[in-house]
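User: I'll paste a sequence; please echo it back and then give the predicted structure.

Assistant: Echoing your sequence first, then the prediction.
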Amino acid sequence: MRKRTKVFLEGCKIHLKCGVYEEERKLGVEVELDLEVESRNFVDYEKLYKIVLKLSQEEFVYLEDFSDRLINELCGYFDPDVINIKLAKRSLPFYNSMRSAGIKIVWEKDYGE
């Protein structure tokens, strides 16, 4: 029997310098992050949070760019099997009637199958 654990951060509010518009990258936007890391190894959710905070200090054009950097950092640190990321911009640079807009990404380790 193999045990795999899913460790998660849910509803994590971060200020991210991310957007197509220069103003978004300069002033930043409010983003809500749900992050789940599945691994056979121990994953420390405090370390997950510190990695997120560290990366949130950088500037990105697309949410996918932030996600790619986050995946690379997590893979280098935890050797995960699956990473699920949901990023939702809560403040959008255009008139709208929605609570948020964003992306969901699922990354899975390639075992060479």
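The chain has a mean pLDDT of 89. The domain at 5-108 is CATH 3.30.1130.10 (GTP Cyclohydrolase I, domain 2).
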